[in-house]
Amino acid sequence: MKIVIATDAWEPQVNGVVRTLNQTFNHLVEMGHEVFIISPEGHRTLPCPSYPSIRLALFPGKKVSADLDKINAQSVHIATEGPIGMAVRRWCIRNKVRFTTSYHTQFPEYLRLRLPIPIRLTYAWLRRFHRRAERTLVPTESMRERLEKNGFNNVHVWGRGVDIQIFTPENPQLIDLPKPILLNMGRVSVEKNIDAFLALDIAGSKVVVGDGPDLEMLKKRYPDVLFTGAKFGQELASWVAAADVFVFPSKTDTFGLVLLEAMACGVPIAAYPVTGPKDVIIDGKTGILNEDLGEAISIAVHLNSQDCIDYARKNSWQACSEVFAHYMHDNSHEKSYRASVITSDLF
């Protein structure tokens, strides 16, 4: 099957959306599909306000249309609602091509943290964006319920996985700090609610692994916290494996890939009982969900690491990609056997 995945989030960005699409791309190719990624690469871009590492395509419509005309895809999936996503959506509607979408980010809640825009207005725009899709794919059941309560139709669950070859309890980073090691990893930004973790008066040492727009501000505010900056691959996994508890203070994630990655390293989770954590964590076994984050940490430190590992290993990217392929198959019954990533050199 010839599949197009359109996304405003792509390499070199580092976030859950990019990791999800990368894994999906690789597994679809292994399954024999021909996969094209349409991204900001090859377009003029400008930095996203407050997120300079995220580059948004400027007026991508003409090039996107030319690329799609040449590809002649049998299935189109729009992963994001940015300029690339909007351009591909317009092309699909204009050419009467069926498409699916996915909802990766609680955008209304994120936006409300930064600008005085009512959440209901953002949801109204998002409903309009997704309503022409054959399906809108979300990572969890509670996210499906939330969108349906906000007037979305044809919402289906497409779960997430973990790379158990990289994220293992082996070779933990040696951290010469008082135990327990309480670690958070991910984008260091306001919507991740990291302040709620760092402000806790609790025994042990706090470690933050990652980069983002709030990093320098938090370094100054919390001089006793170890900020490592961004880490990748095996080095990232070794930092996670060194933790006694993985602390996840975000209340706006749709899933939280880092939760499965931490569990695969044998690290229990402390989190709030909200969308994302409550879908991924087995409360009392692989983590603790509690409105009191400090209490959650105090209990989670005593959980069995092996329970976390066993649970994480049941969530493979292969299985997730098969679900995605099933949804895409509704648009085509043909198969093809090559993969390409669209760049400025290809078209």
> How many helices does DSSP assign?
14
Poorly predicted segments: 333-340, 342-347
Distance between the termini: 20 Å
**CATH topology-level fold name of the largest domain:** Rossmann fold
The SS-based structural class is alpha/beta
Percent of residues in beta strands: 15-25%
Overall pLDDT, averaged? 91
Q: Would you identify the CATH architecture of the largest domain?
A: 3-Layer(aba) Sandwich
Give the beta-strand count.
15
Percent of residues in helices: 25-40%
Q: How many domain modules?
A: 2
- Along the chain, the helix and strand elements come as EHEEEHEHEHHEHEEHEHEHEHEHEHHHE
Nearest-angstrom radius of gyration? Answer: 20 Å
What can you see in these coordinates?
The chain has 347 residues and is of the alpha/beta class. It folds into two domains: 2-161 and 317-341, Rossmann fold (3-Layer(aba) Sandwich); 181-312, Rossmann fold (3-Layer(aba) Sandwich). The chain is 37% helix and 18% strand. The chain has helices at 16-30, 61-71, 83-94, 107-114, 119-130, 141-149, 194-198, 215-221, 233-241, 257-264, 277-280, 293-300, 305-312, 317-329; strands at 2-6, 34-38, 45-48, 51-57, 75-78, 99-102, 136-138, 155-157, 181-185, 205-209, 226-229, 245-248, 269-271, 287-289, 340-341. The strands form three sheets. Strands 8-7-6-5-1-2-15 form a seven-stranded parallel sheet, with helices on both faces. The longest helix has 15 residues, at 16-30. The model is unreliable at 333-340 and 342-347 (pLDDT under 50).
